[in-house]
Amino acid sequence: MRQHPLHTRLRGAFIAPITPMHEDGRVNGGAVAELTRFILAAGLEGHGGLLPVSSTGEFMSLSESEYDEVVGETVEAAAGTVPVIAGANHMDTAGAVDRARRAQRLGADGVLAGPPFYFRPTREEVIDHFRRISGAVEIGVLVYDNTFATQLDLDEDLFAALAELPNVVGTKDGTMDVFAFDRIRRRVGDQIAILSAPGEWNEPAARLGGAAGFVSVLGTLAPELTVGLERLVRAGDHAAAAAMAQRIRPLMTAIEPDGGGTYISALKAGLQLRGIAAGPVRPPLRALHEGEMAALEIALREVGLAAVARGALA
């Protein structure tokens, strides 16, 4: 069985950073690099990787030049210490292929792409979409199974077809369906690595169920908690991992105040409270309401993370 170099590196916590902005809404390239170093300083090397320009990174609102800036700054700051897998999602295949090529040119180790959205693609169209992405680059390709955005379930038969593509090395499993997860794991788990998209919510259960790792949005705000949990899981201390996962759930709940895209606003607000430049979100996303902000501050204190005075980085 063929082994792409990225395949064996898909283990542990894969953190999806926000994209820092200036107050006027421009991408803050310097802060992208600073945030990357902040995450790496928690000990991520050997315990996972980075997923810039994902949904958490507001890929949907970035221009192509901004996409290049964010990926380039992340790759440079990571300096080869962890795999960098850039989001390559787009509404059409040509756009996804273009972003995959850009990511490869900028030094990313792989790309994460889902099926095209808006129109619900057929099975044949999904396979062709990924065949074109795979054929356009040599770096690894991760398939994003994101039913929420695409309204399409990728079943185990479809994954079996995609796993035959030479550089499809993994999947971000966003189904939140334990039965679907198990069917996919049993069918293609020896060919592609499965990363659990519910992240810390599903640990250590997902790892015990055969996942190679998990995707974390919490890690952009609290990388020491995400890496700490990953270390416990990796060491096989599942009781301690489960206890830690329970301890951080109030913070994770505070990060997701409405169950939608406001989690990105919460991550950025939380980083500001920790003294890390993050800036605003882009419309139509909104800033946190006062009650949401207060709940976030309380949750940060409860897990022992320091906060600075509001407005200190304005």
Give the helix/strand layout.
Layout: E1 12-15, H1 29-40, E2 48-50, H2 64-78, E3 85-87, H3 93-105, E4 110-113, H4 123-136, E5 140-145, H5 147-150, H6 156-162, E6 168-173, H7 178-188, E7 193-196, H8 205-208, E8 213-216, H9 223-234, H10 238-247, H11 249-255, H12 262-273, H13 290-302
Parallel strand pairs: 1-2, 1-8, 3-4, 4-5, 5-6, 6-7, 7-8
Helix pairs in contact: 1-2, 3-4, 6-7, 9-10, 11-13, 12-13
How would you describe this structure to a colleague?
This protein has 314 residues and is α/β, with parallel strands linked by helices. The chain has 13 helices and eight strands. Helices cover 43% and strands 11% of the residues. Strands 2-1-8-7-6-5-4-3 form an eight-stranded parallel sheet, covered by helices on one side. α1 runs parallel beside α2. The termini are far apart.
Give me the number of helical elements: 13
> Within the largest sheet, what's the order of strands?
2-1-8-7-6-5-4-3
What's the alpha carbon Rg, rounded to whole Å?
Answer: 18 Å
Report the CATH architecture: Alpha-Beta Barrel
What would CATH call the class? Alpha Beta
Average pLDDT over all residues: 92
CATH topology tier name: TIM Barrel
Q: Regions with pLDDT < 50 over 5+ consecutive residues?
A: 309-314
Morphology: globular
Please summarize the sheet with the most strands.
Answer: 8 strands, parallel
Q: What is the H/E string?
A: EHEHEHEHEHHEHEHEHHHHH
Number of domain units: 1
Q: DSSP strand (E) fraction?
A: 5-15%
